[in-house]
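In this supplementary section we document a worked example of the pipeline. Step one takes a protein sequence of length 174 as its only input; no multiple sequence alignment statistics are reported here. Step two produces a three-dimensional model, which step three serialises into structure tokens for compact storage. The input and output of this example are shown verbatim.
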Amino acid sequence: MNLQTFDLAPIHVAPRHLKDTLRCLLHTVLFHRAMGPITPTDAKCDSFDITYAWLGDANINRTVESSIADVSNDQGNITASVSFYFEPNKKQIYFERWTLPFSLGNTTNDEEIRTRMMDIVALANQKTEHIPSIKHCANHGCFPFEIAIANGHTDSGWIESLKRMLRQGPPLVT
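The serialised model returned by step three reads:
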């Protein structure tokens, strides 16, 4: 199985809106990759007139919140990634990664956030042939996932892949 990557265009965000924007977009990705029966829950951005759907699962929300908790508003450019995997025979096989770059600036355009949300919806619906069987979904019909947030001008997707390969070897292709 090959890793499908979705690299979104950078989004320009004022530092004070970074965590709220991260929360919105991360939950949007997770919601649109949920495969089982779910009960959508509306969430509202604190900083904007934007409502997004999330899975309503406390563990998933805790994972998102802990991933953005240590993000500093003065780190320059930020790249967030969400990697989905499944675990046949107790071995993690990654099948999808979303990369969300953020460029910190003076202002935030809420229309740009809406556009990225719609990009996520379109890409999630467009490419589905790489997704494994629903039997691999964990809680709330969501595949296991990892969130990584890197600062600076690094490409966290490549760095995370390299770290993972060093830990566990290259991804299996079936």
